[in-house]
Structure formats: structure tokens, C-alpha cells
Design a protein that fits this description.
By secondary structure, this protein is an alpha/beta fold. It has one domain: Rossmann fold. It contains eight helices and eight strands. An eight-stranded mixed sheet has the order 3-2-1-4-5-8-6-7, sandwiched between helices. Strand 4, helix 4 and strand 5 form a beta-alpha-beta unit. Helix 1 packs across helix 2. The radius of gyration is 19 Å and the shape is globular.
């Protein structure tokens, strides 16, 4: 099937119905694509970047469009990570890239005020809350005044509905805590950050309306929304004062 025909089929009523009907099989792809759009559109430019837990999905592979001179990715050694994430390949089209194997909640190895952006992409939920507080405090210490701390994470308001009739826990076996929007906001503000913006990723309108999980929302909902409480993922853009 050529591209034109594929587009015609996917845009037809039957094609759309088929995509919606099979959303449960492909929802992880739709979520990944939504996160790529978020990174491309929302993450600010930065010259020196510290990426917490991102060795398996470097920013420049996730749609980050801005040039940088130095990127450090902090992650656990492969044999200490969940088996889903043990294969690490790092390639950089430009700029210096370093993988620092260590604990992303202990950032003492890095100099104070040495980064312009700290990014935590789907990682804060992998540590207990007390460790997350250390991570936020560490981000505050290593950022220059005016530097940005950006992060995204699952929204427990929605993941609770997702897992309620499934197994009752978190959406991934390696998750230690999944945040609701007010909890995440309080966490970063307690570390001293100013929240510049909050955005929801993967709007879930039917799930919210019915209080039952609808995989079709990954297809039919908006990719980005100001209604953070109605989205499957949360994104915060925070700034260090100064």
C-alpha cells in the first residue's frame, strides 16, 4: 500500500474506527509520540543539560530541537536497572555527551550552578518520595540562577482509574510513587522552584467523564492540554529564582 492510499484509509471512517478499536494494542506508541511532541514544543533551549534517568531515551532522540554543548545523563548501571531498560545505546549528532552511572537523587558529583537545564523524563516516579525530594534539591543546587527544571511523570488521578480494575497498583512494576498534579507542584515548590507552567499530556476526556478507563482517549484526546488533571501524564516547567 502506497503512502497516499494509507493516508486515505486511515482518514476514512472505517480506518479511524479500526485505529480506535485497536488503541489498547498501541497506546504505548501513542503515549511515546505525545511525549516527543511535548519535548519538541515545550522544553526550553539550554547549553548545558543534566538528564536524570534518561540514558535509554536521550533528549536528542526524543525530538529536542535545540543545540547544546554539553549533556550529562545520570542513570543506574545496566545491571541495576529493571530488565526493560538494561540495553543502553548513546549516539549524539552534536555536542558532548556523557553517561554518569550513579543515583539521580544524589548529585553531589556535579558542581553548584553548573547546568542551564535539568530534565527528568519519566523518572521521578521510579524513586520513593523522600528520594524525589533529594532529587529536586539536587537539581536546585546544580542549576544556575534562572535555570530550568522540567519533568514529566504519570498522573495518578488517571493511572488510578487505569489500574483500579487491572491490578490495583502502579502502571509499571518499577514505579515507587505516582503523583497527582497538586502533589508534584508542592514537591518542586518545597525545593524552592517557581512553577512557570503545567501541561497535561494525553488528554483522557471519556475516562474522566465516565470514571472508567477508555484506551480510545489515546487516539481521540488532545496530545497537550491545559487541563492537567484530565491528562494521563503531567509536565512541569520550573525555574530556579535569581
Amino acid at each position: 500500500m502506497d503512502i497516499a492510499r494509507a493516508v486515505e484509509v486511515s482518514c476514512s471512517s472505517d480506518g479511524m474506527n479500526s485505529i480506535v478499536d485497536h488503541a489498547i494494542d498501541h497506546h504505548l506508541f501513542y503515549m511515546h509520540r505525545a511525549r516527543q511532541i511535548m519535548i519538541r514544543r515545550l522544553l526550553p533551549p539550554a547549553d548545558r543539560i543534566l538528564d536524570l534517568g534518561g540514558a535509554n531515551s536521550p533528549l536528542y532522540c526524543m525530538g529536542y530541537t535545540h543545540a547544546f554543548s554539553h549533556l550529562v545523563m545520570v542513570d543506574l548501571p545496566p545491571d541495576e536497572r529493571h530488565e526493560y531498560y538494561r540495553d543502553v545505546q548513546v549516539e549524539s549528532p552534536s555536542g558532548s555527551v556523557l553517561i554518569h552511572y550513579g543515583d539521580m537523587t544524589e548529585l553531589d558529583a556535579f558542581e553548584r550552578e553548573s547546568f542551564d537545564l535539568v530534565w527528568s523524563g519519566q523518572s521521578i516516579e521510579h524513586v520513593p518520595v523522600e528520594a524525589a525530594r533529594r532529587m529536586c534539591a539536587g537539581a536546585m543546587r546544580v542549576l544556575r540562577p534562572g535555570g530550568r527544571f522540567c519533568l514529566d511523570t504519570p498522573n495518578r488521578t488517571l493511572t488510578y482509574i487505569h489500574t483500579r480494575d487491572w491490578h490495583g497498583g502502579f502502571i509499571h512494576p518499577d514505579h515507587k510513587y505516582e503523583y497527582r498534579a497538586p502533589e508534584l507542584r508542592e514537591l518542586v515548590e518545597q525545593a524552592g522552584f517557581e512553577v512557570l507552567s503545567e501541561v497535561g499530556i494525553c488528554e483522557m476526556p471519556e475516562t474522566v467523564r465516565t470514571n472508567n478507563f477508555h484506551y480510545s482517549d489515546f487516539v481521540l484526546g488532545n496530545v497537550l492540554t491545559d487541563r492537567v488533571d484530565e491528562a494521563y501524564l503531567l509536565y512541569l516547567d520550573c525555574r530556579k529564582p535569581g
